[in-house]
């Protein structure tokens, strides 16, 4: 009976990965990715279990702008703390010229300013600290994100 329990538990965790879509990409750096993209995906992997806490700024609990601030600090880019100040700083980038490391901004209607921020990786994908908890990957062409996209800023040159 005990062996069955452990087999069931193992199967649960193996198949349970689908609950957190697209985490397979966030493992160790892959030679297909640029250095920036690879490092961003490793950072996202480190933050995969971080609960979303408004105003928080550690891996024990953080919000989206703290995640972007801490991630870009890994590239020696010091950026403002809040989503609004991050959007109002940096170099404006058009959606068609996004590069790995650019911040992407959305008007979600949630939180004190109704905004959300993530970090572009490549091929229309970005990583962000989800309000459901943990760093996740999403795509700009997803209907939710596409309709809420408001702009991008570059801090890494």
From TrEMBL:
InterPro entries registered for this protein in UniProt: Murein_DD/LD_carboxypeptidase (IPR052062), NLP_P60_dom (IPR000064), Papain-like_cys_pep_sf (IPR038765)
PROSITE patterns per UniProt: NLPC_P60 (PS51935), PROKAR_LIPOPROTEIN (PS51257)
Signal peptide: none
One of the Pfam families matching this protein, by short name: NLPC_P60
Keywords: Hydrolase, Protease, Signal, Thiol protease
Positions of the NlpC/P60 domain: 34-156
Keyword Manganese belongs to the record: no
Protease listed as a keyword: yes
Family: Belongs to the peptidase C40 family.
Protein name listed in UniProt: NlpC/P60 domain-containing protein
Native source organism of the sequence: Campylobacter taeniopygiae
């Amino acid at each position: 009976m005990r062996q069955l329990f452990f087999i069931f538990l193992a199967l649960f965790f193996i198949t349970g990965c689908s609950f957190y879509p697209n985490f397979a990409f966030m493992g160790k750096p892959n030679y297909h990715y640029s250095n920036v993209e690879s490092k961003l995906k490793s950072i996202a992997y480190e933050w995969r279990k971080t609960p979303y806490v408004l105003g928080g700024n550690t891996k024990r609990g953080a919000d989206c702008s703290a995640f972007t601030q801490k991630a870009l600090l890994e590239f020696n880019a010091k950026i403002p703390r809040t989503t609004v100040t991050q959007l109002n700083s940096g170099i404006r980038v058009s959606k068609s010229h996004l590069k790995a490391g650019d911040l992407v901004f959305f008007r979600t209607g949630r939180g004190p300013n109704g905004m959300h921020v993530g970090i572009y990786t490549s091929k229309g994908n970005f990583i962000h600290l989800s309000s459901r908890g943990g760093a996740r990957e999403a795509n700009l062409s997803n209907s939710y994100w596409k309709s809420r996209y408001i702009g991008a800023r570059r801090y890494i040159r």
